[in-house]
């Protein structure tokens, strides 16, 4: 069979796909699907954020994976291919939670993790007995997974450091999370405990693909301390640079910060979410100890890792001055990078079901669920909250602030020259995006249409 795998963009308010000149990261999920596909099939992977979909493609099967903000565009693509007589399969977070909705636009839906299901689905397509849904009875093992296959993706559409042969590439070492924050769907999709991937498999993947810059996409790279220590030791001496996400709970094992730095870690993304203890409690994230935030930042600075802080606004418990307090905190602690989000009741989360039950959700356009628009009845009126949000973001990344931000980033990096080049590009990029009320992590890099 000829198989086309698509990573969809999202739709603008005019119901047109939003196109960019570059993407952020190659879609790991589609590289995993490619690796799971038997070799007698032909696979092509397309990133709709940058590339154009050819609906006249000579293909037998189309597969799309989508988060909520992408799903309307995914449905648009799926409907057009089906109109032309092609079989379509949908997967990803949104179809996992709303399979009945997804089946209105697809011939089949994969619910949850694809390993072990995709292979069977392909057999069923060949035998003309495709089921309408595929789902595991339990979470799959992470042992002996195939190395993601990037051979059918155009990797030139992603940014890369000067002289690098490859862009930054995504790799995962764990799945799952025991915390169950009210606004997060990770626990619902991947389970309430951490599953770890054999470290030898992770190292083999890095060596096989000759990756030099890595984004470990784990929700918490230090989630299982002994596993993390073993991983960091295995990465030592590999001459790689990497970034990942980490929980504030790493302070229970602070030596992990130094071990991460010693094996090439240069950024760590931290979901601090709020400086307001009541907001954290309401979100079921009280394990974030606000009183320890400054200690965590200082430890990372000392280790030579640049902290990338993440904050959410719009909690009922937030103070009116929450934005100003947060910007002041970031500046006081000499943090160069931070990202803001507006609270969004993403489908599948406890927050979504709570707000739906209480009648607080007022916008059901999935393209608006991008975490920088308010889709529910918030304590502060929607337009005012969004105004304060962008004002705070612009304040943090004004031209004047960028100079100080760059100084903080370069000063706290183990590779100041590399970090100067990286931050020079990235700070200007953030300024342009935020000035246009376009989230830095939204879509891709440099909007085309």
Rounded to the nearest angstrom, the distance between the terminal CA atoms is 33 Å
Q: How many strands appear in the DSSP assignment?
A: 16
Q: CATH H level of the largest domain: which superfamily? A: tm_1862 like domain
Largest sheet, described in full? 6 strands, parallel
What's the level 1 CATH class of the largest domain? Answer: Alpha Beta
The stretches of 5 or more residues where confidence is low (pLDDT under 50) are none
* pLDDT averaged residue by residue: 96
Helical fraction: 25-40%
Which strand order does the major sheet show?
3-1-4-5-6-7
Strand-residue proportion: 15-25%
Structural class, from helix and strand content?
Answer: alpha/beta
Number of helices, where a helix is a run of at least 4 consecutive DSSP H or I residues: 16
* CATH architecture group name of the largest domain: Alpha-Beta Horseshoe
Radius of gyration: 21 Å
Shape: globular
CATH topology of the largest domain: pyruvate-formate lyase- activating enzyme
Total domains? 2
Task: Characterise the protein shown here.
The protein is an alpha/beta fold and 449 residues long. It folds into two domains: 134 residues, Cobalamin-binding domain (Rossmann fold); 289 residues, pyruvate-formate lyase- activating enzyme. It is built from 16 helices and 16 strands. A six-stranded parallel β-sheet has the order 3-1-4-5-6-7, sandwiched between helices. Helix 12 links the parallel strand 14 and strand 15. Helix 8 runs parallel beside helix 9, helix 12 runs parallel beside helix 14 and helix 15 packs antiparallel against helix 16. The longest helix has 20 residues. It is globular and about 60 Å long. The two termini are 33 Å apart. The model has no long low-confidence stretch (mean pLDDT 96).
